[in-house]
Amino acid sequence: MTVFALSTVVLAGVAAGIVGYLTGMASLVSYPALVMLGVPPVTANATNTVGLLGSALGSAVKGAPTFLPRSNRRSVIVQSIAGAIGGLIGACLLLVGGDGTFAVVVPWLVLASALMILASPRLRDLQHGEEWPRWLYGLVIMLVFVYGGYFGAGSALMYLTVTMIATSAELSTTVYLKTLVIAAANLSSSVWFICAGRVAWWAAIALLVGSMIGGWFGPVIAQRIPDRVLRWIIGIAGIILACYLWYSA
């Protein structure tokens, strides 16, 4: 593999790590880069999942002192388990059926999630401060990551949307928790992809290194952005992702 290709993937990883932390849309940067370099779509999906574990590691370590004390650790564990189960199921479905099944409906799901994250304060008000039952929240999170393990695009945005509506957590804390839960989901998916031999390792390692660097800077940048502005950044990025998915479908 050429130096140009490796450098491209590393730089895409840095950008994906930052974008992924702030908006949950790392794949919007990294996946097209892999495909552009000639990696087949299903292999690119698997390689992308493995490589973006670096982003989760960098963000988790850097943000832990600030955000973990604000979090319900039991809830984090439950969400991570649900995410891991969902990610494993989704990965199995991907390798069995390919990634074409959701191609038509995915842009609509992403657009709906983007609009709901923008409207999340009002949606919370309609619930009069009541949170969803834990079993319901856990089930929905698992379903989100079944989709995430299968298709990937927009799953982090869907997690943010569900969490902002179902719980009373602050957006900045939710953005950090998203990193932990997605790491659990991606880890279980990655194990399956690795065992199935569907990972392009040269690209996965380059993406891992780059995304770890980007992921480290994600919490630093996020702490300087007010929640309202961050919510709009996430929502607009979601709309852009939906348009991209419509265009590429």
Q: Name the structural class.
A: mainly alpha
Point out poorly predicted stretches: none
Distance between the termini: 29 Å
Order of SSEs: HHHHHHHHHHHH
What is the compact description of this entry?
The longest helix has 25 residues, at 73-97. The chain has 249 residues and is mainly α.
Please render the helix and strand layout as text:
Blueprint: H1 3-23, H2 27-36, H3 41-51, H4 53-67, H5 73-97, H6 106-118, H7 120-126, H8 134-150, H9 155-166, H10 171-195, H11 201-222, H12 227-248
Helix pairs in contact: 1-2, 1-4, 1-11, 2-3, 3-10, 3-11, 4-10, 4-11, 5-8, 5-10, 6-9, 6-12, 7-9, 8-9, 9-10
Description:
By secondary structure, this protein is mostly helical. The chain contains twelve helices and no strands. Helix 3 crosses helix 10, helix 5 packs across helix 10 and helix 6 runs antiparallel to helix 12. It starts with a helix and ends with a helix. The mean pLDDT is 82. It is a multi-pass membrane protein. Belongs to the 4-toluene sulfonate uptake permease (TSUP) (TC 2.A.102) family.
Top keywords for this entry?
249 residues, globular
